[in-house]
């Protein structure tokens, strides 16, 4: 994807999206099969790493539809991590997760950072943005409204967006 004029077909082939409603993207009969789906030669070692990272190793043989919402979300995120794509899109990746697993997901996204990987997170979760993101892009009515790094000024902008009283958070 070095070429800015990469075709949409190539961008699509290099992309993986975790949907907010993960029930629409779970297709296989086990967590293990779900994680490796679409990967030509899956590494057992890498699979086990991802299962442990996502805290779902003990669910490896379970049917994805028998899992809780948070467990399903972690399976879908694990599949995104395992697939090795260069464009990863997460739509509300913390939906259904408790705080502990939200922070685990933030740490995982941090581990995915790489100059050759583009990570897009669509979220309304202020704490998750601060924990997992470097930059904020605000879109309103399909148009770019604001774009800023999460430095001191950017955090101030984010607090203003969320109407957080800055005197109470300092």
Overview of this protein structure:
The chain has 170 residues and is α/β, with parallel strands linked by helices. It is built from 8 helices and 5 strands, in the order αβαααβαβαββαα. Strand 4 and strand 5 (143-149) form a beta hairpin.
Q: What is the secondary structure topology, with strand pairs?
A:
Elements: H1 8-13, E1 15-18, H2 31-36, H3 44-53, H4 69-83, E2 87-91, H5 99-112, E3 118-122, H6 126-132, E4 135-140, E5 143-149, H7 152-161, H8 166-169
Parallel strand pairs: 1-2, 2-3
Antiparallel strand pairs: 4-5
Helix pairs in contact: 3-4
* Class from helix and strand fractions: alpha/beta
Query: For the CA atoms, what is the radius of gyration?
Result: 17 Å
H and E string: HEHHHEHEHEEHH
Distance between the termini: 41 Å
Strand count, sense and barrel status of the largest sheet are: 3 strands, parallel
Helix content: 40-55%
Strand content: 15-25%
Average pLDDT across residues? 89
What is the overall shape? globular
Sheet with the most strands: spatial strand order: 1-2-3
Low-confidence stretches: none
Q: DSSP helix count?
A: 8
- Count of distinct strands: 5
